[in-house]
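Researcher: Go.
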Amino acid sequence: MNTLTFPRFLLKHAESIPNHPAYREKYLGIWQVTTWQENLEQIKNLACGLAELGFKRGMSLAIIGDNRPHLYQAMVAAQCLGGIPVPLYQDAIATEMIYVLNDATVAFAIVEDQEQVDKLLEIQDQCNHLQTIIYEDPKGLKDYKQSSLRSLSEVMQVGQQFAVKHPDFFFKEISLGQSHDLSVILYTSGTTGKPKGVAHTHQNFVQAGQNSSQFDQLSSQDNILAYLPMAWVGDHLFSFAQAMVTGMTVNCPESRETVMADMREIGPSYYFAPPRVFENLLTQVTIRMEDAGYIKRQLYAQAMNLAKRVGSDILDGHSVTILDQILYQFFDFTIYAPLRNALGINRIRVAYTAGEAIGPDLFRFYRSIGVNLKQFYGQTETSAYVCFQPDRQVKYDTVGIPAPGMEIKLAESGEVLVRGVSVMQGYYLQPAATAEAIDDEGYFHTGDAGIIDKDGHLRIIDRAKDVGKMLNGKLFAPKYIENKLKFFPFIKEAVVFGNQKESIMAFINIDFEAMANWAERRHIAFAGYVDLAAKPEVYQMMSDCIEQVNRDLANDPMLSHAQIERFLILHKELDPDDDELTRTRKVRRVFIAEKYAVLIEALYSGKSEQFIETKVKFEDGRDGMISATVRIEYAKKLQEVA
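Model: Structure:
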């Protein structure tokens, strides 16, 4: 057990499946393949190059960029030397990186391109330990003369020469690695304060990777598309840990803009995405169907009605009538399969979603058209590994049963507590915070409120800190309501209020792309997001969506009292750059409540409109202001269930 490390899996795959693809990367329109044998050679050269530059056991290596084989290799190279990779979000602005680089005592950084180099050079004098910056893509960097800069190709050449002179060095370093060594530091999203560095050992992620792979019978024959941030724990479990222990192929898209096209070409057998990605895919479907002819729209509607009624039963192997089976097969040939193919998900054997709760309607949609979409549950602190849904035991309102090697119990307050193989060693250099998060019995306090049903499945209600009570003493669970709103393809984000209030109010963010397409087809002129968000037709559309949500809530015994009474459409999109969302697009509720206090007051005081000026940060880093007079409308409420 003490020798269970990722570098040893690298050696194993290079010997047992040397010619099997470890990575594929789309470059200049062509898929480039790196076999496991080539992967070992490249990682050895990189590790030896880092050693020549002074990287030593126990040091931290920052990794910043889109999903690239060389960046995943950099993680393993650091681990081979006993170092600790620290992935950062590639879309973070420079000043956001300072805290993480200092907190993790980062001395070396490997980055993708000029954009990331510029960020680090801008803040290097504020980073206490950063000495060396290594870049993969040399484009635009020809005239950069800073002594701290090195190209990745140069470092690998140096490493190749080093390996010739010291042929035993690399393998000796790997042999020194132990399962209790730190394998990665992943930073929390920081919804309520500064991010914390979550320190995981090799054993944490190796066991999470092995157990979850066995759970879904993953092997080297599977392949996955790696397109989500490398700093996110989900990517580290699926695209790194599971890939390293099984030997499956990791596919890296050419760019963020080509993900969908690349996915259709690859046809992954294994896929994961947070709910917002599945929401965006459904939005694309809705836009396409709006543009389709009358006959196609009618056929699609009939197919979706059938899928909603029997699709999940067929997927789970339950019995349906012969007529429904025949109709489903017909629509699978004419509608469902072409739709799955257009979205690049036709060959998927297992798909997962996590990160935050997914709306049940969205979940049903994918399963109804034949996609084996399941939910898993976990946190950065638990290697994203706590609960999984077994095949044929999928429930829409739960996140599954405890994963192998994990224990779950509920505190008296209803908070979910977990213990097992995947729980972090602790917060990096923060013993007090670690002691607060992990109790004396070894249970990690997740901060989520949940219940366990009669079948042992865990249902997450909301974040424990967000669950509250209305003035009448009844339950207020904002995320549950927000997820229902976000099922609609025209709603990108929603924030609801109601804790210690008499009624529920809502902020709505429209999906500008979907809404603009809808408006253009109806010849509704608009000058941008602010103008479109204020259109009466858009307000009517949102009113109809909220009425449907209220209808669903009215039939929910637990939350029939929590129907939305009034709403407004925000004049700007909630944005991580404006600190309204985390980099994983989680709502920063406290910050939003403070920033938009004037709008919340207007909602509860009965005003029909409210003027507001809002500070924003533009893409080039400049600060600016957006002002608008925001309309406030009543929503239609329905009679509560008895």
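Model: The radius of gyration is 25 Å.
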